[in-house]
Amino acid sequence: MTHAAFLLMAQPQGGNPTDSLISTLIMFALIIGIFYFMILRPQQKRQKERQKMLEAVKKGDKVVTAGGLHGTVAGLDEKTILLQVADNVKMKFDRSAVNTIIRESESGEKS
């Protein structure tokens, strides 16, 4: 912080104690406002984007789970997803285990 910030936060000497209380409440309100806009709001946006991504998963998509397992979606339920990870090998996961959906343009692989 700068020296000016410390001067603004300094308590007035003497004077009305109500003024001191009001300035303290304003300072706490500013801190809470900054906390909300810097931390909570971006986190809520990321959660909404993740929820949209999980709802957009469809059969045939290539996905990566949170554990790093790569597979192709073979089936979907309301809360689970069936991934084909090899020939005749299918594994069932919670939808929340899906970390990313791999698009062909993103993968950089040539088929």
Helix/strand layout:
Layout: H1 3-9, H2 17-56, E1 62-65, E2 70-76, E3 80-86, E4 89-94, E5 98-102, H3 104-107
Antiparallel strand pairs: 1-2, 1-5, 2-3, 3-4
Largest sheet: 5 strands, antiparallel
Number of spatially distinct domains:
2
Helix/strand structural class: alpha+beta
Q: Architecture of the largest domain in CATH? A: Roll
CATH level-3 fold name of the largest domain: SH3 type barrels
User: What is the average per-residue confidence, as pLDDT, rounded to a whole number?
Assistant: 84
Rg over CA atoms, rounded to whole Å, is: 25 Å
Which H/E pattern describes the elements? HHEEEEEH
Helical proportion, percent range: 40-55%
Given this structure, which CATH class of the largest domain is correct?
Answer: Mainly Beta
Q: How many β-strands, per DSSP?
A: 5
Gross morphology is rod-shaped
Number of helices: 3
**Low-confidence segments:** none
Distance between the termini: 55 Å
Strand residue content: 25-35%
Strand order of the largest sheet: 4-3-2-1-5
